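Annotated sample (chain length 78).
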Amino acid sequence: MTSPALTVLAATGQGAHPLVHLNAALNTLATILLLVGLWQIKGRREASHGRTMLAALAVSAIFLTCYLTYHIAIQLTV
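Output written by the structure step:
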């Protein structure tokens, strides 16, 4: 089942909202950072692990902001 917002975008020929791709990229980057952090802590590299986890937190916060912005924008257009 598709959402009404996606139906509106498809019907108007606009395609996907640009934030959808940014959200996917940010989510992928956060996942990669978490995996790198896991590898670092298993290798007992605490300092670099801490920096990597802070970067993952920052990317996740940016993702959340973009995600909420996207859903607010979609609600305003429907």
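Annotation: The two ends are 17 Å apart (CA to CA).
Annotation: The chain has three helices and no strands.
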